[in-house]
Amino acid sequence: MNQTQTTGCYYYPSRSQHIQCSAVINDEQIQLFDNQTNSIVSVSNLDCSFESPLPGIATAVCFADGGRFIPDDINFQWPFTHHSHGIAQQLEKNKLLILASVILIPLLLWFILYRGIPAIAVYSVGLASPSMVEAMGEQSLQVIEKIALEPTQLPSEKQALIQQQWHSMLDDLQLDKKKFRLSFYQSDYFSANAFALPHGRVIVTDELVILLKDKPDALRAILLHEIGHVQYHHGIRLAAQATASTIVLAIIFGDLEGITEVVLGSSSSFLQQAFSRDMEREADKYAIEKLIALGYSNDDFADAIQALQNKLDEQAQLDESWLKYLSTHPSSQERIDFARQYTP
Amino acid sequence: MDTTTPPVNTTHAPSPQIISQDRVKFSGKAGEFFGIWTVNILLSILTLGIYSAWAKVRTYRYFYSNTSIDGHSFDYLATPIQILKGRILAVAVFVIYSLVIQFFPTFGILLAICLLFAMPWIINQGLRFNMRMTRHRNVRFAFAGNYGEAFINFIILPIASIFTLYLLLPYVLKRIDQYMHENISYGNKPITVNLQGEKYYMAALITIGVTIAGLVIFGIILGLTGTAMGIGAIDAENIHPSTIIFPVLIAALYVAFLTLVSAVYQSIIRNHILNNSEFEDVASFKSDLKAVQYAMLLFTNAFAIIFTLGMAYPWAKIRKARLLCSATEVTIYHGAIAIIDTAEQQQSSFAEEAANVFDIDISLT
Question: Exposed, middle or buried by CB within 10 Å (0-12, 13-18, 19+), for B164?
């Protein structure tokens, strides 16, 4: 009969009392003896359970009554544990696997965050009902209105003119006029800008209209860009992606604390910017394609971006705009070049 | 290994008789933990996050089992299934919350109010779970806080402190720490905690002093780099390498600064709490964590993590645990050998039952 011996500490069930002892283990049972070789415990192997082994930590044996024995030797191997027992520990000690993890983790994370989640987001936008998107869009508008928008100061003739242009463009594109609505607002916060809400409302600021007052074609190009955002469901996708990435990072790195959260937090916002840069390109492409399809020039789009960039440069003289490189849009020159050199 | 443990069943004079007086020992190794950490993350990714519950248990067990007082290590008792249930619940709540916030921003307020009222319960549940899952010498810890007190300490008082221009804040923090610690018991032995408000006001003043000093330095550096940037950066078309390096540098400085400030406050408060807590007749504590040393450690940890793109995380975590343990002295008295684990008998109440079902993980620091 195989017999193994070791020493360790026995903890009595449900109390702080404990005793140094030696253990004798054979095929049927574990026996513990104190210094005077009096038997303290004698338990059948069948009534023992073992903690899952961890690198560098002695594996304790737990008895059915709650008593426990911890060997002094951290490398002590219990002879009759099941074969699959300790598989996690073997993996954690495997140098090759550790090396593989170091290489695979960044690759997998990149794949999940930049490929997997966006792909799922594209698929899942189909699941959102139109009424839900409508509610989402209108509520977002209410919030933005409170924070950053003022009633428009544009003369009503000017508004009517642009609306007319908008409607004929929607007709040409065969888009639903009930869905795609154009609104004007004055905004110091957004300055010369336009944005689209997921349910099809496009907001144009007075400042943009004034900036492009001599370039109606450029304004049309920007409106097409915004329609592109709506058509590709960019708003909803972005929201879904932000949520999904936060969850993924939180689950995988669940137990990080303090500083690392700061790092993670900033990396996820970088991530969001990368997402939206891709989306801007998509909307740019949409605008350029439609311009050509409707018989206008792809240069209109380039002109619009150039005008916006000139305005930005002017403002940049005033404030510390070096942070603008973090902006959600791709570099202006890149977009202008893309528009000018576009071939269908 | 166990040379410090004296024989147990000897007769002793009336307490308090000191059995042992020693620093807390931490025996974790960075190399060992690196393996556990990376392999667990890989497995978590490959199992779409499910293994993360096992990973958490293994990480906690590694740290608990490597922390020992008087030759006896701590045990972390939570099972992966408990953690998994808690995580599924947390993810579900988070998904619902973010969907509501992003799709219906105006309902967000209503939801925030619901969350406000659920908060004390969630905090209690988390504390209760963590204590029950911590064991030393076969006796579990327990937490006995109630909803009413938690509501006052975590909701009412912090809100009230806003209306006093935060003058009340140190007192509120004291109340929170008092609540979180005085409800702990080790088996059948409750803890006694006597925290003093003055200490919290002192800590706040020192922290504010460090913050102001830091902001002045930070401002000078920011001003210098800002002007350096002004020359070439307006032109968005040619992004200079410096456009990327400077923001990173400023972010790093910001992290370092936060680290320093929190280290100062945390070390003062930690010392105060431990020096004024004891399990009468069982154990008393002494903490002499030095603010500068702790700040240096957190600071170098943060930098190591950032510049190794996270690879230094296991090393940083081990280092921190080692420093905190070595700054803590525990005196064990004779009463420590006669503690009874009462966790089994308490399971009648709903709160105790619920605490066993799943983990609600809330980090309060």
Answer: exposed
Q: Which residues share a beta bridge with B239? A: none
- State the best of B20, B39, B340 to mutate against chain A, taking most chain A CBs within 10 Å: B39
Partner-chain contact B336 A16, CB within 8 Å:
yes
With CB atoms and an 8 Å threshold, state whether B139 touches A15.
Answer: yes
Torsion of CA B56, B325, B190, B144, to 10 degrees: -30
Banded model confidence at residue A126, pLDDT cuts 50, 70, 90: confident
> What is the Cα–Cα distance from B240 to B51, expressed in whole angstroms?
43
Q: With contacts defined as CB-CB under 8 Å, which chain A residues touch B246?
A: 322
CA pair distance B132, B75, nearest whole angstrom:
11
Give the gap in angstroms from C-alpha B202 to the nearest C-alpha of chain A: 24
Residue B126 forms contact with A (CB below 8 Å): no
User: Touching check for B257 and chain A: CB below 8 Å?
Assistant: no
- Measured between beta carbons, the chain A residues lying within 8 angstroms of B235 are 313
Which distant-in-sequence residues (6+ apart) come within 8 Å of B72 by Cβ? A9, A18, B5, B136, B137
What confidence score (pLDDT) does residue A318 get?
A: 55
What residue segments make up the domains of chain A, in order of their start? 3-86, 111-340
Q: What's the sign of the alpha-carbon dihedral B344, B350, B352, B358? A: positive
Q: ∠ at Cα A333 (A330, A338), nearest 5°?
A: 80
Map tokens 């006029």 to a residue: A177
> Which of B28, B301, B365 minimises the CB distance to A259?
B301
pLDDT of B359 higher than 60: no
Name the CATH architecture for the domain at A3-86.
Answer: Roll (2.30)
Report how far residue A67's alpha carbon sits from residue B319's, in angstroms, rounded to the nearest whole number.
33
**pLDDT higher than 90, residue A266:** no
Residue A114, token pair as written in the block? 């930049």
